[in-house]
């Protein structure tokens, strides 16, 4: 039996050939004034774009689901698809439809992916847009495994590469937040949410063996990842990487380490509810330019470990705080600079429209005002930044002298070049204007001669100029008119004079288009050679913007300049949490002090639910991060040593997709802290051990505190919040542990949370009170109080188990026989396990006093 081959149209055959080249992208196929999508692409795109899904079944045995968007709105729809994490390939007509013989020739003119997008509509102005490349892990000469990792922001040209341990890959992704991740086939996908692209292992090998364009400063793994990132970008944007320089090394050891948990806990880029507007970055962002906003994110995500750099940054912020008039002058000048980086990137790859180029020129024209404002400041940081700004006046003058005063968005719209810039262009434009007047003269004359008052001269791209006459006036048409086209309700004619005029006009139009295209291309190529100058200008302007932003926040919020300590120390007076203070308006924020040093380096914080323990822990870590980012801090005073890492273990979360329970996630994060913390780290632990049974959790929390106290290589500064009140006794035997609690006040049976950290230990958590506030039924909370009273007495049955299940109203003596009271049991157990040989006399006396207090029932 012969196989029946389905009929397909030439158009579909061309479509299939184009689609085979980009199988993982949604193909936008240009047909007339629309870009069409077919088959699975249409099914996927229609709901994402909110457009109707139809079908095409003409001259073919294949039914093709389809949807389309107007060509003039394609960038908007591409942005929506990219925002949804999809890749898009654009297939355009690459020959004039009038000159085509048969099917118009088409080709893929661009591929847009989430990590290589350049269209402004698809980019967030204040955030980078990274493509990450994660290479396979390799062992170094010491037998340790590392992964090559590279981050390329094609929209700005920023390029970084380095190597990280496999366990730190997620942390690097959390800091750089790439929109797309490139992986070898078969590699395990990271948990970080981003679009994934894969290439086979031999592709990675070929990329690494490609042209040498690094300076040799990168390790082999890093070079491989950087080569892959660049090769992938070249695939997507052939010839569009002229603005991308050799990758700079990722120097994690020169910046404070922040893992994924810390980035989330401190709400660096997003709040706990996923809002970027309520993040720490948004709270301190008063920048006037997109380049400044991105530089601020960089400072927050990679805080400095260099005391000289930090003192210089604080000097700059302090001067702008004192000299508010100069700060306002600098910010006003910066507002006109705009996004030099991204505008230049689009110039370099040849996709910038005339209006973008004009904006780039205007931004460069504003730079001298920025230099004047910064030069009036005295801090050394300002002098050094001003010295790095090159003269770009020639570029600004070139743009202003070439482009029309109000250029169009697209070069194809015409009228791009300024009058007077090119003599031949001016002459052709004059000819076109005269010819248009001549067209009107022809229309007037032929209307008079024919007596057809409704006659109009019309233009059509296919048929050119013609005299259009309604069907009712066909009998009046002069004999020397030549029929050009018949329509349903009209006829179109041409005369020799109109034909001659048409050739003159169209000839002028073609020449005008050709000259404007050439002159505009020359402008783009000339500007593209100035990448180094524009890059240095943008970098300096961004840093100035960051300093001005931080100064405004400090001035308005009454923030203080931090002081560096040569000793291990974190001393904060009247510290505040900037996010809670900013967004909680119903009550004034209560500031708190913190005092940790080498002698008292672990603070154990107990207190009631809703008392403010978590806020207090987070605000301490936030103050440290802001200080090392070069900012003033929300406090009356702050003195700190430099922290190499901030570790956080806060909150409850599970990773169900990886089979990890809430408690497993908690233990994995805790294990990483115990493994990687150093004496220079700041560790924030909140409710460790709450995900399992009480005795299990208490045991783990106690052991962790002992380990952080006793192990010299892990002697970090630690804040540990807990509801395990028994943990407070560790301060009796561990001298570096200090107890603190969140103060409360009971008024007429009501509990008032004072939000104040005071020395001492809490005796209860007030959880039932919080349950009442949440609306738990009264009979439930009443019964909970009975059970709680029983538990707090810790009555034991003959097996030594707590008597919890006594019926309501049953007296203590009517049930089980109790061998010992809970206090006696604890005293006996403590005496049984204490190591007297290792206990100092003072600690022994303290232990005896504590046991005596328990036995007295205090």
Low-confidence stretches: 1-5, 796-801, 811-820
Mean pLDDT: 86
Adjacency order of strands in the biggest sheet: 13-23-24-25-21-26-27
Largest sheet: 7 strands, mixed
Main structural class: alpha/beta
Helix content: 40-55%
* Shape type: elongated
What is the first-to-last residue Cα distance?
A: 97 Å
Proportion of β residues? 15-25%
* Number of H- or I-type helical stretches: 27
Number of strands: 27
Q: What integer value in Å does the Rg equal? A: 36 Å
Can you offer a commentary on this structure?
The structure is a single chain. The protein has 858 residues and is an alpha/beta fold. The protein has 27 helices and 27 strands. A 7-stranded mixed sheet has the order 13-23-24-25-21-26-27, sandwiched between helices. Strands 3-4-2-1-5-6 form a 6-stranded mixed sheet, sandwiched between helices. β16 and β17 form a beta hairpin. α11 crosses α19 and α12 packs antiparallel against α19. The termini are far apart. The N terminus is likely disordered.
Throw out a few tags for this protein.
858 residues; alpha/beta; seven-stranded mixed beta sheet; six-stranded mixed beta sheet; elongated; disordered N terminus
Short synopsis of the structure:
The protein contains 27 helices and 27 strands. With 858 residues, the chain is α/β, with parallel strands linked by helices. β24, α23 (694-710) and β25 (717-721) form a beta-alpha-beta unit.
């Amino acid at each position: 039996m012969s196989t029946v081959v389905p009929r397909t149209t030439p158009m579909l055959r061309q479509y299939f050939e184009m689609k085979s080249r980009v199988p993982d992208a949604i193909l936008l196929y240009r047909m007339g004034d629309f870009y069409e999508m077919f088959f699975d692409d249409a099914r996927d795109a229609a709901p994402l774009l909110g457009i109707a899904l139809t079908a095409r079944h003409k001259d073919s045995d294949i039914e093709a689901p389809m949807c389309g968007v107007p060509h003039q709105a394609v960038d908007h729809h591409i942005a929506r698809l990219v925002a949804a994490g999809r890749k898009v390939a654009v297939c355009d007509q690459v020959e004039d439809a009038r000159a085509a013989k048969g099917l118009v020739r088409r080709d893929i003119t661009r591929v847009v992916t989430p990590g290589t997008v350049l269209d402004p509509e698809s980019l967030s102005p204040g955030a980078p847009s990274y493509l990450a490349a994660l290479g396979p892990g390799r062992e170094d000469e010491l037998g340790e495994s590392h992964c090559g990792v590279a981050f390329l922001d094609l929209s700005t040209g920023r390029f970084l590469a380095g190597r990280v341990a496999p366990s730190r890959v997620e942390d690097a992704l959390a800091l750089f937040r790439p929109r797309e991740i490139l992986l070898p086939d078969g590699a395990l996908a990271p948990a970080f949410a981003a679009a994934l692209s894969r290439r086979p292992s031999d592709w990675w090998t070929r990329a690494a063996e490609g042209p040498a364009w690094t300076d040799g400063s990168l390790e082999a793994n890093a070079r491989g990842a950087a080569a892959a990132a660049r090769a992938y970008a070249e695939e997507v944007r052939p010839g569009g990487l002229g603005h991308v320089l050799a990758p700079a090394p990722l120097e994690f050891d020169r910046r404070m380490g922040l893992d994924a948990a810390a980035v989330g806990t401190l709400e660096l880029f997003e709040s706990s509810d996923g809002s970027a507007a309520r993040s720490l970055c948004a709270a301190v962002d008063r920048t006037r330019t997109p380049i400044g906003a991105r530089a601020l994110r960089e400072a927050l995500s990679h805080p400095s470990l260099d005391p000289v750099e930090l003192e210089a940054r604080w000097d700059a912020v302090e001067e702008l705080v004192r000299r508010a008039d100069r700060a306002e002058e600098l910010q006003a000048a910066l507002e006109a600079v705009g996004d030099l980086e991204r505008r230049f990137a689009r110039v370099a790859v040849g996709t910038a429209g005339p209006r973008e180029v004009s904006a780039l020129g205007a931004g460069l024209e504003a730079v001298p005002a920025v230099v004047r404002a910064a030069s009036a400041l005295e801090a050394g940081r300002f002098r050094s930044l001003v010295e790095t700004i090159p003269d770009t006046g020639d570029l600004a003058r070139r743009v202003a002298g070439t482009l029309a005063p109000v250029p169009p968005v697209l070069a194809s719209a015409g009228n791009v070049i300024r009058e007077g810039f090119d003599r031949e262009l001016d002459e052709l434009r004059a000819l076109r204007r005269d010819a248009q007047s001549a067209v009107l003269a022809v229309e007037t004359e032929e209307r008079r001669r024919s007596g057809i008052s409704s006659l109009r001269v019309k233009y059509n791209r296919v048929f050119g100029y013609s005299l259009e006459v309604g069907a009712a006036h066909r009998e009046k048409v002069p004999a020397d008119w030549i029929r050009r086209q018949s329509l349903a309700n009209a006829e179109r004619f041409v005369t020799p004079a109109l034909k001659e005029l048409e050739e003159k006009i169209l000839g002028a139009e073609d020449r005008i288009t050709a000259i404007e295209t050439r002159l505009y291309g020359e402008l783009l190529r000339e500007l593209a050679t100035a990448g180094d100058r524009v890059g240095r200008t943008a970098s300096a302007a961004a840093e100035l913007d960051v300093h001005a932003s931080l100064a405004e926040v400090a001035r308005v919020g009454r923030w203080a300049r931090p002081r560096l300590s040569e000793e291990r120390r974190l001393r904060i007076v009247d510290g505040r949490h900037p996010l809670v203070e900013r967004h909680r308006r119903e009550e004034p924020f209560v500031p708190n002090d913190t005092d940790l040093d080498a002698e008292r380096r672990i603070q154990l914080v107990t207190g009631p639910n809703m008392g403010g323990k978590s806020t207090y822990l987070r605000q301490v870590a936030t103050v440290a991060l802001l200080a090392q980012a070069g900012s003033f801090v929300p406090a009356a005073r702050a003195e700190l040593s430099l922290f190499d890492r901030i570790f956080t273990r806060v909150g409850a979360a599970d990773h169900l997709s990886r089979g990890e329970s809430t408690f497993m996630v908690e233990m994995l994060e805790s294990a990483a802290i115990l493994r990687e913390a150093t004496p220079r780290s700041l560790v924030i632990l909140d409710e460790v051990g709450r995900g399992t049974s009480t005795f299990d959790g208490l045991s783990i929390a106690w052991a962790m505190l002992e380990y952080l106290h006793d192990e010299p290589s892990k002697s970090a500064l630690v804040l540990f919040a807990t509801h395990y009140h028994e943990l407070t006794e560790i301060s009796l035997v561990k001298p570096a542990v200090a107890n603190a609690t969140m103060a409360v006040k009971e008024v007429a049976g009501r509990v008032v949370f004072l939000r104040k950290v005071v020395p001492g230990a809490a005796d209860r958590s007030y959880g039932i009170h919080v349950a009442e506030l949440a609306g738990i039924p009264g009979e439930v909370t009443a019964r909970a109080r009975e059970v709680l009273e029983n538990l707090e007495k810790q009555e034991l049955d003959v097996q030594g188990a707590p008597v919890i299940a006594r019926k309501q109203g049953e007296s203590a003596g009517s049930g089980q026989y109790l061998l010992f009271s809970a206090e006696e049991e604890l005293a006996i157990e403590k005496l049984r396990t204490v190591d007297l040989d290792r206990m100092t006399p003072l600690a022994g006396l303290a232990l005896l006093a504590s046991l005596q207090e328990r036995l007295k029932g205090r």
